[in-house]
Specification:
27% of the residues lie in helices and 28% in strands. It has 384 residues and is an alpha/beta fold. It has helices at 49-66, 86-100, 146-150, 157-174, 250-261, 288-300, 314-323, 334-339, 357-363, and strands spanning 2-18, 30-42, 70-75, 106-108, 113-121, 128-132, 178-181, 190-196, 212-218, 228-230, 235-237, 239-242, 245-249, 278-282, 305-307, 328-332, 342-346, 351-355. It folds into three domains: 2-132, D-tyrosyl-trna(Tyr) Deacylase, Chain: A (3-Layer(bba) Sandwich); 143-263, no CATH class; 272-380, 3-Layer(aba) Sandwich (Rossmann fold). Strands 1, 2, 3, 4, 5 and 6 form a six-stranded mixed β-sheet that branches. Strand 12 (239-242) and strand 13 (245-249) form a beta hairpin.
Length: 384
């Protein structure tokens, strides 16, 4: 269900001709009102009584905020292409009216008729609003969500990078003809990134963040990620179809890959999703300059790299890299600087090898190639 709210100083309608073969028998043929909240309502496939209850809550919320004298439910099929059948739409609209009538003065325009209407909008900040009404998803905080918090979700630089990387991953999978933003009514082959305000449910990292970031794609495709995932407390919907569209929750895709990562020993993100792929550990301060040269070579290959330049021992630097799940940790000592070789700890294989820069570049598996967002020097990173 989608509702377009207009707070009108004056509103009226009158029915004209049949718009469908069997329209609803009109209880009201015309009306003229002042200070009313007009709810242009589109009923979509899959809408049910739970959607109606959520719709009522949203209507009452806006009604009380704008201090209207009445509510008009006005059937409006132009907000979606995923329309419910007429007979179902009428039942849903009737339920909406019945659940409201004990709480507010409510009028409902008949379904299935062409109508002439006039409207004067007040023009204040709340006088024009739209909301998509969805089922409330209630999730519990599970033990596994600590790994989202580990990466600073929802607001860290790492979290921002991982969202961008997943959007790029989906772009590669969906191969859209073109892209837009905040356009839910996508055309065939169009991909849009939607930023939705979450009005309900417990805020939780990755799975119920505010804003909720969705990718919407026009068309039918199968993805290589499951539609639902489970942690120790929740069953979580990751992506779904509505009509000829795919909706994908970006935060939940990240959570899917995190859940897969913690099954490994040690836990390891895919290279393409790791905010930093390579960390350079100069064993002495006078080797930082050489580390910068190595970093420049890696950055030229679109590899995300940083340098732990803190005045700290090598053991602490290695432990810090492990805590942050860095996939490739490069130790740079005097020998490495003289021989142009690298001593590389490979997290996924739990092994240490001597490699050339070219061998390290070939080792990293990243088809997404999302750009780096974190600073080169670890000392410049915001920590807390």
């Amino acid at each position: 269900m989608i509702i377009l709210f207009i707070h009108a100083s004056d509103f009226g309608f009158s029915i004209k001709d049949k718009a469908i073969q069997n329209p609803e028998e009109p209880k009201i043929k015309s009306i003229d009102l002042k200070n009313t909240l007009v709810c242009f309502t589109t009923v979509e496939k899959g809408d049910d009584e739970e959607i109606v209850k959520n719709g009522v809550e949203n209507i009452l919320d806006v009604y009380n905020r704008v201090k209207a004298d009445s509510v008009v439910i006005y059937p409006y099929a132009h907000l979606s292409s995923n329309l419910a059948k007429p007979e179902i739409a009428v039942k849903i609209l009737e339920s909406l009216e019945n659940m409201l009538k004990d709480k507010v003065k409510v009028y409902r325009a008949p379904f299935g008729w062409y109508k002439a209407f006039y409207l004067n909008c007040y023009g204040h900040p709340l006088s024009e609003l739209s909301r998509r009404i969805r089922k409330v998803e209630e999730y519990e905080k599970s033990e596994e969500l600590k790994y989202c918090e580990k990466f600073g979700f929802p607001s860290s630089a790492e979290a921002a990078f991982m969202r961008r990387a997943v959007i790029s991953y989906l772009r590669k999978a969906l191969q859209p003809f073109y892209e837009s933003e905040n356009n839910e009514n996508v055309n065939e082959g169009e991909m849009s990134i939607i930023y939705n305000t979450v009005d309900s449910g417990r805020p939780l990292p990755c799975i119920n963040e505010n804003p909720r970031v969705l990718v919407v794609f026009g068309g039918v495709k199968e993805l290589d990620i499951p539609k639902e995932i489970k942690d120790s407390k929740n069953t979580i919907k990751v992506w779904w179809n509505e009509g000829n569209r795919i909706y994908i929750d970006v935060g939940r895709v990240i959570y899917y890959f995190i859940l897969n990562s913690i099954k490994l020993q040690p836990p390891t993100l895919p290279d393409w999703l790791s905010p930093i792929q390579v960390r350079l550990l100069p064993v002495k301060n006078d080797l930082v300059e050489y580390a910068v040269k190595v970093a420049d070579r890696l950055k030229n290959e679109k590899i995300r790299v940083d340098i732990d330049d803190l005045n700290d021992g090598l053991g602490n630097k290695i432990r810090r890299s492990g805590t942050e799940w860095i996939p490739y940790v490069v130790i740079i000592g005097e020998r490495e600087a003289k021989t142009n070789s690298l001593t590389v700890k490979i997290r996924s294989k739990n092994e240490q090898r001597s490699m050339s820069i070219e061998e390290l570049i070939r080792e990293i598996k990243d088809d997404v190639r999302e750009g780096q967002t974190l600073p080169l020097f670890y000392s410049k990173r915001k920590r807390g």
